[in-house]
Specification:
The complex is a heterodimer. By secondary structure, chain A is an alpha+beta fold. In chain A, 42% of the residues lie in helices and 18% in strands. In chain A, helix 1 packs antiparallel against helix 2. The chains are: A alpha+beta, B mainly alpha. Chains A and B meet through helix 1, strand 1 and helix 2 of A and helix 1 and helix 3 of B.
């Protein structure tokens, strides 16, 4: 038990879930950000998680998780006919982001639960370490 | 009684418990990673292998790899049989992993208690009172 990696592992999980929560916040904040062209419209952003493996021992226990990137959802944008909207294009259409608020709320709850799980792991590991430090006192 | 045998099985058990807590923590950290397969160790089997006194390669440089890296070698790690696999290939059942983790933490504390008892009896023998 040289380094007690549990803290690093659970910490990587917390950090990844935190970034995921940031993306959920960004998606929900931009849910009504209409625009006048498909290129300028906000698209739902989703995290990509990847397992971190031990460099010297890739078949051994994993070293945690990391977020390798953010992908924009390829789902089609909603096009609404609103000729009096200030953002309407030449033909009178506005484009709405492809953010699904219900999906994002579920995503938020999942991220928050996973974060809590990792916090619990750290708490338990801390108690184990404290008991070890007090051994023989 | 040799002094380095004073702690008996508990020293090995404690090391293995700490290693298992790392494996289970990695499972929980990867609860949302697509394709991740939950892993665990067969505690009894690994402990039985540990007992006769493991022979390890000396690791004298930071990049060296021992005869096995850490108390649990890669070959001793097994994959958990999923009860309800998800579409993205992830086999982490968060509830099961949580139960296993807290059980492991309890057993770690128990091993520590046993070690503590051994230490106390050694101290009593040394002081003689």
């Amino acid at each position: 038990m040289s380094s007690f990696k549990v803290f690093d592992i659970a910490g990587s999980g917390m950090s990844a879930q935190n970034l995921r929560m940031n993306l959920v916040a960004s998606n929900l904040a931009n849910v009504d950000a209409v625009s006048s062209s498909t290129d300028a419209t906000y698209r739902s952003r989703q995290p990509v998680f990847q397992t971190v493996l031990d460099q010297h021992n890739p078949r051994g226990a994993a070293n945690g998780v990391r977020m390798t990137g953010v992908v924009e959802s390829p789902a089609p944008l909603t096009r609404d006919y609103a000729p009096h909207h200030p953002m309407a294009d030449g033909e009178g259409y506005i484009y709405r982001p492809n953010v699904n608020p219900v999906e994002e709320m579920a995503n938020m709850i999942s991220a928050s639960r996973s974060y809590q799980n990792n916090v619990e792991v750290i708490n338990a590991a801390r108690q184990m370490l404290v008991a070890l430090i007090n051994l023989g006192r | 009684m040799k002094i380095d045998e004073a702690f008996g099985i508990h020293e090995h058990a404690l090391r293995l418990r700490a290693a298992r807590s790392e494996v289970l923590a990695a499972n929980l950290a990867n609860a949302d990673t697509p394709g991740f397969k939950a892993r665990d160790v067969d505690f009894a089997a690994v402990l039985r292998q540990e007992l006769p006194g493991p022979v390890r390669l000396a690791a004298t440089q930071p990049g060296h790899i021992g005869s096995d890296s850490g108390p649990v070698a890669a070959g001793q790690l097994q994959y958990r049989n999923p009860t309800q696999p998800s579409v993205d290939g992830n086999t982490v059942d968060v509830v099961r992993e949580q139960v296993a983790f807290s059980q492991n933490a309890m057993q770690y504390q128990a091993s520590l208690r046993f070690l503590e008892g051994r230490l106390r009896s050694l101290l009593t023998a040394i002081k003689g009172d």
